[in-house]
Amino acid sequence: MDPAGGCPHADNARLLARGAVTSVVLPGEVAGMAVLGHDALREFLARPEVAKGAAHFTALREGRITAGWPLLTFATVRGMTTADGEDHRRLRSLVSRAFTARRVEELRPRVEELTAVLLDALHRAARNGGGVADLRGHFALPLPMGVICELLGVDAEYRDRLHHLSNQVVATDIGPEQAVAANRELVAVLATVAARRAAAPGDDLTSALIAARDEEGDRLGQEELIGTLVLMIIAGHETTLNLITNAVRALCGHRDQLDLVTKGDASWADVVEETLRWDAPVSYFPFRYPVRDMTVDGTVIPQGTPVLAGYSAAGRDPAAHGPDADRFDVTRPGRPGAVRHLSLGYGAHYCLGAPLARLEATIALERLFTRFPDLDLAGPEAELSRHSSFVGNSVRALPVRPGTSRG
Ligand code: HEM
After folding, report:
1. What does pLDDT average to over the chain?
2. Statement: residue 339 has pLDDT above 90
3. Quick check: CB of 346 below 6 Å from ligand 1?
4. Which residue has the least CA distance to atom 41 on ligand 1?
5. pLDDT at residue 3 in the model
6. Is there an atom of ligand 1 within 6 Å of 236 CB?
7. Whose CA is nearest to atom 31 of ligand 1?
């Protein structure tokens, strides 16, 4: 895997042509594997002999992983993404109530309100910037960050720092000292946030988690409380940020598809689902470990191997999506009886925030293109600088010309 990230699709196509499962070399020359084919990945994600707990990671157990390994937080953060079985159900159930379709729908007015405020800010930034503004920094980032911070009761003063630190944690090319420092500071900032909520509880998720920690019966340990906050902050904004950014890039590069939506021949929800498939915001997710040697699509994955879930590859697998899998097509019919994409995960660890991500992205895109129908990229797509990560899949900044504002 190239720690510098970059656009994954050309490499994915090359690897997929060789098979649905491949060996990879992770940073630090650690041997791993990746599952890339759609059907193979769905099967792998659902197999009971696949674990997420770091105790199953052979190289880690044998002391071959250093403290500054750039992917260490993914493997060891104490929360639901690294838990199995009963532990996983316990950790997930503590937050899942806040993310049901019904609870998320109640957030609609607030998401709409925040979107309107940010569109004003984007308009102002473009006016001050000679007609050009960074859509990622002014819109795609602060929307999901604002929402997840409000849900978690994180005061506004911490948000920029939290984004900076979480961005370092998901970078795969970060040096060992920087990785250790970013992780330590992220934990420290979130411990401060938790201490504030403990002193002044509110109607937020952090206060609810603290109440669970303080109850009798070991519902949540202190390390799990902070690990859950780390997870919610990272998963709750880095991903939706990439989705909104990638959808705007896709629509600007395919104006015919944008026209289909504005004419009513496709919906904004179709844009969101097709972007999830075509340009998955989470490219390769670390890690799962077979608890015994297993065979997937004819390839043996040895016990204890760190395996990446190759969501960006699965989204363009021609075996699942047809010979035109590379084409961005918002009217693409799903395969009868099959899931359209796996980009929000599959099985027990299916994305907890899926309803929220979909709500935020549909509102954001609809309002953005309704207010700025002529919005376009300010420069060639090929010149956009990419994220330095093979986990997140997007660009670092998205300079756009919003054009005339309708409102
Ligand atoms: C477009 C936006 C999003 C994408 C593409 C996305 C993608 C994913 C994927 C692929 C997984 C499964 C990872 C794996 O185990 O292989 C996942 C899990 C998760 N997501 Fe999301 N996510 C998004 C938004 C969100 C939001 C907004 C939140 C929080 C509110 C969130 C919270 C989580 C959590 C907590 C998990 C772990 C679930 C578990 O281990 O049981 N995600 N997400």
Report:
1. 95
2. no
3. no
4. 349
5. 86
6. yes
7. 353
288 CA to middle of ligand 1, Å? Answer: 15
Nearest Cα neighbor of 75 from 88, 91, 94, 59 is 59
- The contacts of residue 402 (CB under 8 Å, 6+ apart) are 122, 123, 126, 131, 133, 372, 374, 375
pLDDT of residue 150: 95
The residues with which 26 forms a beta bridge, in sequence order, are 30
| 3-class state of residue 220 by DSSP | coil
Angstrom distances, CA of residue 201 to CA of 101, 205, 383 = 25, 10, 47
Q: Rounded to an integer, what distance in angstroms lies between the CA atom of residue 253 and that of residue 251?
A: 5
DSSP-assigned states of every residue in 313-353: HHTT-HHHH-TTTTS--TTPPPPTTS-S--TT--GGG--TT
* Of the candidates 240, 235, 246, the residue with the CA atom closest to the CA atom of residue 395: 246
Which amino acid residue places its CA nearest to atom 39 of ligand 1?
349
Q: What percent of the chain has pLDDT over 70?
A: 100
- Categorize the per-residue pLDDT at 45 as very low, low, confident or very high, splitting at 50, 70 and 90: very high
pLDDT (tens digit per residue) in 97-113: 899 999 999 999 999 99
Burial of 347 (0-12, 13-18, 19+ CB in 10 A): middle
Residue pLDDT, tens place only, 211-249 = 988 887 678 899 999 999 999 999 999 999 999 999 999
130: left (phi over 0), alpha (psi -120 to 50) or beta: left
Q: What is the tens place of the pLDDT at every residue in 171-191?
A: 888 888 998 999 999 999 999
Domains of the chain: 9-401 (1.10.630.10)
Average pLDDT over residues 9-18: 95
